[in-house]
Amino acid sequence: MKLLLIEDNPTMQATLQRTLERRGMQVLTCGDGDKALALWRASVPDVVLLDLSLPGRDGLQVLGDARAEGLKTPVIILTARGTVGDRIIGLNTGADDYLPKPFDLDELEARVRALVRRSADSDGALPARSAGWCGMQIDRDSGAVYHDGVPMELAPRELALLRALLSQPGQAITKERLFELVFPGEAHVQPEAIEVVAYRLRKKIGHTGAQLVTLRGLGYLLKAAA
Q1: 100 by DSSP, 3-state: which?
Q2: Based on CB atoms within 10 Å of each CB, which residue in 32, 48, 176, 221 is the most buried?
Q3: In the chain, what are the domain boundaries?
Q4: What confidence tens digit (pLDDT) does each residue in 71-90 have?
């Protein structure tokens, strides 16, 4: 699932990106209203998370222009403007949902997945699970990983690591990036901890036909066993 997060607050942007990527989503970010529409066109996201208070073009202008161009991506407005009038304006401009700040991250995730399901039901464009690789698929609703239709029994950090690697099978991902996805916001954890998670995951995916390969100085990648 690909999200476009249009949010100008660096702290909020980083927190949301880190949290949602840990939950198996790909998150593109933009903090400028004037650049947001071009990125929206180019990236073709599944859901747009849109703040209203943006430098340059504000969120309502971005949304209105997107709808005028025919961009139909579901949109959730995230904003501190929580009055009924603001919600009505946002929804009338073309938003699909409205979540006032501060909000619960679990609720945000639930609303994102609900919009994706609704979009899939309406046009059949999105499958319930990601494309398979070595028999493994990520369930778009729960974030669980299945192998040949059977859910894999993985600890939360093993699951986060596998989801990250499945997003780019056959491509190296740096240890630093994987550490951010597996241990988000955990500054007290030593970087070497990712090696322990990788060691455990390697044993648990041995039966799938996939190999977790360590590339010294680069990171890790998944490849099909020879």
Answers
A1: strand
A2: 48
A3: 2-123, 136-224
A4: 889 999 987 765 566 667 77
